[in-house]
Amino acid sequence: MSDEAGRWGRRALLRRTVLLAGGAAAGAVATAESSWIADRRLPLAGGPASATLGSRFQQVGAGAVAVTWGVRTDTPLVALTFDDGPGPQWTPMVLDTLDRLDVPATFFLVGERARRHADVVRGRLGRHEVGNHSWAHRDLARMDATAVHDDLRRSHDTIAEVTGVAPRLLRPPWGHLGGAVLHAAARLDYRLVLWTLQMVEGEFPDDPAGHARRIVADVRPGTILLAHDVGTRQRLVALDGLPDLIAGLRGRGYRFVTVSQLLHAGAEV
Predict the structure, then answer these.
(1) pLDDT 10s digits, 82-138
(2) Which of 221, 219, 149 is nearest to 178 (CA)?
(3) Distance CA 228, CA 87 (A)
(4) DSSP run (H or E) holding 1
(5) Nearest to 172 by CA among 83, 80, 49
């Protein structure tokens, strides 16, 4: 190869290298811009993760929202809560047990189910408390603030109509919290209630008494206990064991209260 041909070859290689480098840089800029634009449409920009909504004045009720897992108290109090109902299969059984043993509880109702099975709970919640558990048990943490608000508002109105009492407590499905859930809860003046301890039915198949003993041993003053009155047959382990659980906790000196009563007791400490 002549010197001149070699020089032309090196020039072409250099030119191609420059072009490739320029293309890579342009591609990096384009990728960064695309990511930025995409992020503006994802949770950090008004989506599920965002606890703010727009740049104008925000309607957020009292302007704050509390989140509770349990209550700090030395008094032996426990709040029994039931999620996902009402349903015609097990909710009446749970209510019958609670009535027979004179135990109050807090029911976090799914709005659509409350409307469909209104006859299951109508007139039967006098000693109990109701909370909002969303309209159709969708994951609120995947929805933006407007969608969460509309979902909870719809459920709120239905629960109030069916039970005669407007719920003041909210438990999002699966306990999933996102910024949008916080925003909607504040806007609706809800208190967010999660739980300290939940039933572990899968560890005690066909052993309601054993399951009850496990839960009784784990309860501490101020515990919010999570159960379900709708679901798979596995959950019957906890529901069939309710009498043993109640007797066991009373044997340890515990008194059953609603979540709101527990919160009030905690505020007095």
Answers:
(1) 999 999 999 999 999 999 999 999 999 999 999 999 999 999 999 999 999 999 999
(2) 149
(3) 10
(4) none
(5) 83
CATH class of 67-267: alpha beta
CA 220 – CA 115 distance, rounded (Å): 35
Residue 206 per-residue DSSP state: T
Which segments within the chain are labelled E, that is strand?
Answer: 67-68, 77-83, 106-109, 129-132, 169-170, 191-193, 197-198, 223-228, 255-257
Q: From CA 35, how far away is CA 73, in angstroms rounded?
A: 49
User: What DSSP string runs through 115-179?
Assistant: HHTHHHHTT--TTSEEEE--SS---GGGS-HHHHHHHHHHHHHHHHHHHSS---EE--GGG---H
Amino acid at residue number 221: P
61-to-58, 152, 188 alpha-carbon distances in Å: 9, 14, 6
Q: Where are the domains of the chain?
A: 1-41, 67-267
Q: What is the pLDDT of residue 146?
A: 92
- What does the pLDDT look like over 219-265, one tens digit per residue? 999 999 999 999 999 999 999 999 999 999 999 999 999 999 999 99
**Inter-residue contact 81 to 227 (CB < 8 Å):** yes
